[in-house]
Every structure is written in structure tokens, then in C-alpha cells.
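Lab notebook page, bench 4
Experiment: in silico fold of construct C2
Operator: M.H.
Input chain length: 491 residues
Purpose: comparison with the prior construct
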Amino acid sequence: MTSNSWRQLFVGIIGAVVIAGAAIADDVDALVGAMLGDTPIIDDLKSLTDSIGGRVTGSPSNTAAVAWALQRFEEAGVPATAEQFELPSQWQELEASARVGGDVSFAPRAVAKPFSTGTDGSLSAPLVDVGFGTADDFDRLGETADNAWVLVETPVLDDDIGLAGLFAEYNDAAATALLAINADAAGIVFMSSRPKNLLYRLPIFSSKDKLPILVMERENAERILRLLRSGKSLTLQATIRIDSGYAYQSSNVIGEIRGSSRPDEIVLVGAHLDSHDLGTGALDNGANVTMLIDIARQIARLGLQPKRTIRFALWNGEEQGFVGSWRYTERHEAELDNHIMAASFDIGTGRITGFFTGGRDGLPAIVDKQLAPIAGLGPFHQVNIPLIGTDTSDFMIEGVPNLIAAQADANYASNYHAASDTFDKVDQQQLKLNSAIVAALVWGFANSEDRLPRQTHEDVEALINSTDLEQQMRTFGVWEGWASGIRGRHD
């Protein structure tokens, strides 16, 4: 979009806000105008995705991304540090291949699911149809599943189904994996939920390091099901080589604009820097990384001074179970009482429609207040339920008020963790609009008198007991840490 186009867009938006009767403070006006003007956000995203590419935590490209982010903050005049932390177990695929044999022979493409075990060479076993992988399906198979590769059918996940389908896939896959383990299956093959031979990595935390698991291209998986259901006898020989089983170091990148009058009070906004390796991590989550860098850049360029400290966190280890943000809560535990808010931006470049407010009474009204100056970019609707699934998870169970941007799915789910998650999928215009929304929200929280207290352990426990939060925590591998007392607030 040209410079004049952005200016015209900004003028139109401000006009809508004025018509709506919203009062725009001078600093918010200046910051929103800067975000909608010519900034390096798109060039930054091209650099991160095209030049560095996929950024698996612990990989050389991830290390390069940390250096890249530190350089961007330095060039913006925003102090930033790399906060190192340890991840307990490496996981990267080195090789994955599959060959169908028996009555029919062919070689479909497949990739390992994150946290799959390796096969110690190749693993050959009967290939059987377990339907959609439900408890009834495994009961139907009975002992046939024992020492067999079980093929799981999946519904198509497209832009019409979107995020609801993506969350359902997470939950269904986690349940299926536990059933397969209990059935003594040799391994699991999940049919890709994406058509046109698209492969992706969707982790299953419930079966971590317990079973070899593949995702197979949809069209060939459908071919296999037709063959099996017509009475053919098939085997699968699969090879999965994994680099795993040892601790390693990574780093979060933390940029900071120090508060002028209440510097000990912290507004934390984050996006994860790491990604999976099949694509280049543009929607998940390079776009939001560059958005936060650009907001920091424009605040510094304009010489704006927030009352509270604003921290911009670029997390690593998010795809390994939110490890980087978890380690941050441990490292900064003494400061958590003064974390006014922790927010995460992690759903690509769909329009921000509001925020998930974590089941915290009073927080939706505060968010409404901070979004009022940019009402013309709305409407906005806050959804006051707790969500596990991104880097606010550990702040939630630490009792810190937390926000997750609620966004239109756009093309996020259909490209999620996939080879297709590349720069060309980014909605550049909406990314700019989102950056203005987030800038206004952050500036509002950094200067408002409003604040909610940190919740106690009992408060968090009550939230878990009154919602489906426990099941979410189990799905994403957070529950064991909470239940054992090593994760979340327990004082």
C-alpha cells in the first residue's frame, strides 16, 4: 500500500472515531497515526520469514532470529536483552518416510508429529483403519490394533471451519493418542486435515515421547482407507529419525520502555519468535513479532513516555509448550505482583475483534476503556473466558490479568504449522490496522489508573474448577506442572 493510501485510510478511520464521539488523547492520536503511516513492519516481516525462515527453538535459524530481533530493537532505540533459559528436551525431525505394502504398494509423503518418538531404524507393521480414533473405534478394532499402525481419519479443516476446527483437532488428537497407547498400537498415522497434499506439524502433548506418530498427506490417506475398506490387506513401513532427548539453551528477547512515574508497574505484551520448520512462520507468528517491534519503534521515535513500564516479549519455546514464557514467570517471580497485564498476539493477521480476558471480573470493562480511542477500528467484543494455548498460559495460572487477541480466522487455521505458512499469506493491510489497535491498547494500559490485583492460588484453583480449564491444560501439557506444584502460583 502506498504512503498516500495509508494516510487516506488513517484520515477515514479518525473521521469514523470522531463521528462516534470518541475522545482521542494527543499521544494515542500520534501513536495510532504513526502505526498507520509508513513504517518498516512489512520489510521486517519479509526479512524474518524470507531470509531466516522457519525458526524451531534450538535451531541455528532460531538463534539467528534472536540476533535479528535484538538488532531491530537496537535500531529502534529500545533497550533489549536476550534472557537465556533451558528447555528440558530437544525435538526436531531429521527424517520421516513411509511406504505402504501388502496387496498394494506406494510411498505417500508424511512428516512426524512434534514429540513423536523415532522408529530406531524402520518400523514395519500391519496398517489398520481406526476410523476417527474414538473410544468406540478402538473398541471395534479390539486386539487388531495391537502392534499395528492405526490410520486415523480426520475432517477437512478449511477457512470455513477455521479456529473451531483447529481446536477440535488438538483435542481429538490428544484423546486418540492416549487410546492408541492403551491399545498397544505400534504407531499412529493421522490423515492430514488439509487437502491438496499439504503437510503440517500439530503437536500432541499427551503422548510426548511415547509413540511414533505421523501426519500423512490427505489424498493418499484417503486412498489407503478406500483400499482397507474394500478388503485389501496393507502394511506400513515407516522411518522416523528424531534429534531429541537432551536439554538445550534458548533465549527470549525482552525489549523495554521504562515508565516515567510508575516504572515498577509492568505492562507485558508478547508474541512468540519461534515457529515450526515446514513453512517460514509468517502467520504463526512472525507477523505479530514484527507488529510488537514496530509499536516499540514508533513509541521511541515519537518520544512518548508511558507512566508504566512497557515490556515487549518475543518468546521462544512456545511450540514446545510455552516454555519461554513459563521460564519468564520463574525468572521474574518477584515482579509478578506488579504485572498489570500480560497479553499475547498469536492468531496471524485476521482482524482483531476484541480480547479473551481470562475469566477475570472487571477486566473486560478496562479493555473496553483502553480501546475507546480507536472505536472506529471496531466493533470490539471481549470474551471473558480462560484460554490455554499460547504464551499467556503461565501468567493465567500465576494469577496475572491476561489477554489474548481474539481475531477473525482469515486464513490462519488452514495454514497453521504448515508448509504453506509463508509471507504471501499475510494480510498486510490488516496487520497495519491491528498494529494501531494494539498500540492504543498498550498505551492505554501503560497510562491508566486502572489495575486488578494478582489472583491467589485459591483464586486460580477456583477458576480451574468452575471452567474447562483443566482439560485445556491437559491438552497443551500444562496440567502436570500445575498439579505437581512446579508451574503456576502455589503460595
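Observations: Residues 14-24 have pLDDT under 50 and may be disordered. The CA atoms of residues 376 and 485 lie 45 Å apart.
Next step: discuss at group meeting.
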